Amino acid sequence: MRASRRTVLAGASAAALVAVLPRTAAATAPIPIAAERRVIEVRGRAAIVSGLLQPDGSAGARFRAGDRFRVALTNKLPEPTLIHWHGLRPPLEQDGVPGLSQPLLQPCGVYEYDFALRDTGTYWMHAHHGLQEQTLLAAPLIIAESERTDEQEVVLMLHDFSFRAPDEILASLKSRAVEMTKAMAAAAQGGHSAHGQPAQGHGAQSGHGQSAGASHGHGAHGGAHLNDVEFDAYLANDRTLADPQAVQVERGGRVRLRVINAASSTNFMVDLGAIDAELIAVDGRPLHPVPGRRFGISMSQRLDLRLRIPGTGAFPVLAVREGDRQATGLVLHTPGAAVPRLSETAAEVAPPLSFAEEERLRALEPLAARPADRRMTIALTGDMTVYGWGLDDSGPNGMREYEVKAGERVEITLENRTNMSHPMHLHGHRFQVVGADGRRFPGAMRDTVLVPARSAVAIALDADNPGSWMLHCHNLYHMAAGMMAMLRYV
Ligand SMILES: [Cu+2]
Known about the structure:
Helix content: under 10%
CATH architecture of the largest domain: Sandwich
Strand content: 35-45%
Shape: globular
CATH topology of the largest domain: Immunoglobulin-like
Largest sheet: 7 strands, mixed
Bound molecules: copper (II) ion
CATH superfamily of the largest domain: Cupredoxins -  blue copper proteins
């Protein structure tokens, strides 16, 4: 019954709801991908969102090692857009940043992309224009290693969803900031909330009947503020836990789970329940495997997990919002097993994403040992009174540029002077996490690192892709409020 209701609702685009990945690129023809509107069902309501779809309705694109990235992108939206291939290292003019790479792609326009893929792994594509990413204008981008026949691939793409328009969300963040400032001023005169810190009053926007306290999510970093926005739903492959995707797997079988956090403003804790897993890659880059059942994932990061289905039955894979109990996810089940009804509220509040977990990661393919030619410290700054964020106190209209030279080993310390963590993403490169708060370690290769509140994280990279590249917070609203800069080759 669910399927038929869904089919009626979504019509021809129902296939797009299933995260089955599309066919592999032919050797010669570019993969056609259209940015277009689609309809999904969220909490029994039709939601008009956007997507990046192939003609057969499948989302995103899949390549194999050694393929070229050949894509023909058509804009079927009624407004201009541009799509960024997140985590890939294309030449600048194909990076999908309006102004820096290319002009916006106008409605009915087509852009063709063609460049050598330098890495395998789990990546994604998303709009890099305005607040379009919040409209789910995003999709998986998988570059498969040599195919393994003993492993079933499952892609899990996470979103935060609101029935409100994205610009309305941003406007409410700005107006709330003014109220928070007043509340903090009042608190400074003696009136503290029950949580021992100034009242921040965002439970008011929650429509879930959750306790406001749970969504405050005070962290381990001296009362860090975890969540800016109360969403209407959290989605896994476009579905909620009220009607989750059910993926059939084999008893005792191996599964390669590729988790992509495409949420605009939400970090998650992935909870595998009874399944033992190994984390084998982050942001597409291989790791020395880390066993576990719970793994944090910040906005725009990816986790590659190797699972072994422990027996027969149904095995939920949950993603719980950081500092909260709201959950999404999908269900892996063996043939014939009943899929249970799942609560959208996890039993426990997901703890804040821990940098201790990050520090344990070790790249399988680290940067070559080499001293840094250039070191810089970039402060992550913010002024809650106007919901303005920045780099080295840049305002919303003053983007900073940081210079590097081709061939250099560059080390950047990202010093977070704010009370929120920031998932910092660098375009066109991969970097290694090499330190935090004065401690040194040979950490993961990444394209996005979560810099905890009031902490400093050091990253190292080889400047091997000349151009002008975005360095920004991947919280969409922080970026829109000014937390972006440019790394410019001179
Ligand atoms: Cu941020």
